[in-house]
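Batch manifest, entry 17 of 40.
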Amino acid sequence: MSEANHTCHGPGYASPQEAMRAPREKVIYAIALYVGTEVEKPDYLATVDVDPESPTYSQVIHRTPMPNVGDELHHFGWNACSSCHGEEGKERRFLIVPGQRSSRIHIIDTAEERAPKLHKVIEPEKIIEKTNLTAPHTVHCLADGHVMISMLGDAEGNGPGGFLLLDEDFEIAGRWENGSTNGMKFNYDFWYQPRHNVMVSSEWGAPNTYQQGFDPKDVAEGKYGRQLHFWDWNKHEIFQSVDLGEDGLIPLEVRFHHNPESTHGFVGAALASNLIHWYKENGSWKTEKVVDVPSEDVEGWPMPMPGLITDLLVSMDDRFLYFSNWLHGDLRQYDISDPSNPRLTGQVWVGGLLGKSQEIAGRKLEGGPQMLQLSLDGRRLYVTNSLYSSWDNQFYPKIADEGSYMLQIDCDTENGGMKVNEGFYVDFGREPDGPARAHEMRYPGGDVTSDIWV
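Output type: structure tokens
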């Protein structure tokens, strides 16, 4: 969507319902990286044409390279979103693109939607000097003009990390949390819901643990997370932590309902392969396991293989939830009209280690479904297959040689159901500098994983 259509009202949309009526996406931005491959080139932001009327549909049409090699670009977000809607003068123009491995933060100008340009780089030494934080992950814009980034480590790569604030000029404004992480062992994702004065954050592990790859011994030694933290949004401090136990090992992506009045939300526990629902009841926050993905016995594996729920998202109308099982290879759609009782309404197999995947556009899919992005109207789900370079190389080594894919899944928003669009296949194995890994995706007009309403 062009900025010209809505900048007069401030960035984003007045409500989730308005977002669902926005024009169809024409381009999508995707992270593409070379870390962990034999290609000694910088990671880059890929602009992909997703307009079916365009002659370059399903192709990378522009690449914005970073200035350095080895960043491991990962998650990224906007300088402004629907939390700033109605504030004239603000616009959703700049992408904040951190390097998860380098701790370098890149600011990219998308004024030219189909050809973004690098605007500014914040070096890790400056971040460490001012905040003692490293390993940036989730980026969310705040209603006051700041950008907040979850940081997973300290200067030495140990937990628990914290939260970094950038001001409107992309200068380091300090840390968001008030001096204490109060029982938080690790950090990962976060989402805030101001009308309930709450933020929820999850736990992965310390950079020193996960950057080298996955070792089950680290789980036994307590080096991976299992807690959800509920923060007082105004006081910037934890008021309740929930130990999810064995059912909640490695809780990753957290998603509130888009309705700002709702207290319902979900987190996917990757290693436990469970979907956890949270909600507020009688003044306190409760959690419950609502979906369990059984592990599978696979030849050559020393233990039953978990599905590994890695990404999840919720449609703008809060009706459907989607998640990916990166190791098993399936994408699932659930009707969450009753948040305590999700109902499976769709499932497709796109890669994975169970051998159940279909071929797409005549190609055998390597890797498993990982990062997800849903169109604002809920009808198109985009998926890429890279998780993290060292984990990719451990579980899906062919990605390094063959590159990633981006797929598009058609979603039935009336009755539920999913079907792979055979006419859409972005082959990151054919990039000019060699096969690249593709990770998170964003639209110029905003999306279901970055927009928050206040």
